[in-house]
Amino acid sequence: MQPRALTNDLSVSPQIVPDDVPTLAAIGFRSLICNRPDGEGPDQPGFQEIERKASALGLQVHYLPVESGKVSDEQAQAFGQLLDSLPKPVLAYCRTGTRSATLWALSQSARRPLPDIIERAAAAGYDLKGVVRRIANGGRTPVDVADASHAVVIIGGGAAGIAVASSLLARKPGLDIAIVDPADIHYYQPGWTLVGGGVFEPAHTARTMASVLPRGVAWIKAAVAAFEPERNAVILDGCRVVKYEQLVVCPGLKLDWDAIEGLPETLGRNGVTSNYRYDLAPYTWNLVRELTRKGNGKALFTQPPMPIKCAGAPQKAMYLSADAWRRAGMLDRVDIEFCNAGNVLFGVADYVPALMQYVERYGIALNFGETLVKVDGAARRATFRLAAACGEPELVEREFDMLHAVPPQKAPDFIRVSPLADAAGWVEVDPATLRHKRFDNVFGLGDAGNMPNAKTAAAARKQAPVVAHNVLATRGEATGEARYDGYGSCPLTVERGKIVLAEFTYGGKVAPSFPGWFIDGTRPSRLAWWLKERILPPLYWQGMLKGREWLATPELQG
User: Fold this and answer.
1) The domain that contains 361 carries what CATH number?
2) With CB atoms counted within 10 Å of each terminal CB, which end of the chain scores lower, N or C?
3) pLDDT confidence bin for 190, thresholds 50/70/90
4) How many Cα atoms sit within 13 Å of 272 on the Cβ side?
5) pLDDT of 144 higher than 70
6) Interatomic CA distance for residues 362 and 511, integer angstroms
7) What's the average model confidence in pLDDT over 88-96?
8) Domain membership flag for residue 440
9) How far apart, in whole angstroms, are the C-alpha atoms of residue 389 and residue 408?
10) In this structure, what DSSP letter does residue 492 have?
């Protein structure tokens, strides 16, 4: 007898025997549901034996038998009604617990998000991916007919998705492509650092999705619920089914604001901001100016554990803020601290000396091994967990006037619980070809992939042509194999007007795009700032998103 909790109110387990009932009652269970038909196995006690023992101990017991592999819609509804009416907590059991977990999942389909259902079941040891379509359909068995079908389906209309669609069309005009994305607005996220630094207006970084989609690409304005790669199908919310010949997965990642206690409630007020959100980046600049008017204060800048998108962004916000205070002549009256969950300032050592010069110039205190876990906005206090080699981790509280918080980040829920994910929840692809390791007609790029590169728009710009070529090669419409070398770029805005242009490939190998006499990426450069402010935005809108592969055309092998 091994109860496995699905919720606070329900656990499931393999077959129990009468002698287990006193233990279950002592644990605190108040109701039992039997989902196994009597006589299914030679070692199986009958339901009435369990019922007699349970009733004598004051437990409520119900018999809802289900044949193995044949959970009906009506049985799932009945299970949900039982769960609503019975005293809690409830234990449901069958031969292994799978039928009980399936009944629960189907009964909860209208009450909980599909990824939450799948993830809770997986944590309890039950793989319910085989019934995702039914869960997505409100617990009912759907008709197995595709609502749409396309040669190439791209999940995600961000930088990676639109770039790969445009690169495909540049190579194969007229190719039948659909992009699946529910968003109305497409954002140039690299620009939010400059919004938070008072350089760009927010509107400079946003355009309607319809205006940036490549001509001829179908836009399926919906959210993804699940994947069925064995059937070449994507399940959308509402159980609509889209079939594909090749699938490209690039939905970006999820900012897990809720992982930090108190943070969602105080974002955008009480001195708490983040350049990782479009609506909050202007508040960063407002706080910088407020502190300037006040004439003194304490500013905290945080960085969560890796991986995160644009790993340099947390300190970019810090440098631009510090530079603004320096220009206002009050830098010595602002206490600046960088609380980084990691143990180094930047992951590529070649760029650290230049960054350290600015850390010292601005008088920034570096606190490594500190992870933000709680924010009390009203009291202006942030709590950090300190890394500990052994024993219980220590907590430390820091006061602030301004807090630039960066949340932990992970793959989207529908990716993490899908057959496409690796053990950590990211899309599992070959780091060079970007082809899925288990499904030959599936490719992944961008922030949701498990490649060990920096998650930046510059990386997606290099990845998109690789995926485009390899998709067409899979279709027999191109020859050779394109390979991605792990290129990523992070323009580190160390002051207004100067940037340390970090460029590197897999393994942290420095990979400059320009000769050293033009831009030496290991030193602060005005030309690099000009590139960031004036060249990269139009290169993004009119180059990358249009399939123009300046300095991004992949080399082919074979």
Assistant:
1) 3.50.50.60
2) C
3) very high
4) 25
5) no
6) 28
7) 95
8) yes
9) 21
10) E
Residue 196 and residue 317 in contact, taking contact as beta carbons nearer than 8 Å:
yes
Q: Which of 480, 9, 457 is nearest to 193 (CA)?
A: 457
| pLDDT score for 130 | 80
Q: Of 86, 110, 136, which marks where a domain is finished?
A: 136
For the chain, give the mean pLDDT.
94
Residues 436 and 541 in one domain: yes
pLDDT of 21 strictly over 70:
yes
Residue from 457, 458, 470, 488 nearest 429 by CA: 470
Contacts of residue 229, Cβ cutoff 8 Å, sequence gap at least 6: 247, 419, 420, 436, 438, 439, 442
| Per-residue confidence band for 452, with pLDDT thresholds at 50, 70 and 90 | very high
Using DSSP bridges, classify how beta strands 481-482 and 556-557 pair: parallel, antiparallel or unpaired: antiparallel
End-to-end CA distance of the chain: 57
pLDDT tens-digit map of 271-288: 999 999 999 999 999 999
Task: Compute the distance between CA of residue 161 and CA of residue 340 in angstroms, rounded to an integer.
Answer: 31
**Whole-angstrom distance, CA of residue 440 vs CA of residue 430:** 11
Cis peptide before 190 (omega within 30 of 0): no
* Residue 282: both structure tokens together: 């202007």
**Can you give the pTM of this predicted structure?**
0.86
Domain membership of residue 143 (yes or no) is no
Task: Give Cα separations from 465 to 150, 338, 519, 552 (angstroms).
Answer: 20, 37, 25, 7
Which of the four pLDDT bands, split at 50, 70 and 90, describes residue 20? very high
* Res 225 pLDDT > 90: no
Place of tokens 């890796």: 306
Q: Check residue 429 and report its DSSP letter.
A: B
- 133 pLDDT exceeds 80? yes
**What are the catalytic residues?**
310, 490
The DSSP 8-state label assigned to residue 456 in this structure reads: S
Q: Which domain holds residue 487?
A: 149-253+411-557
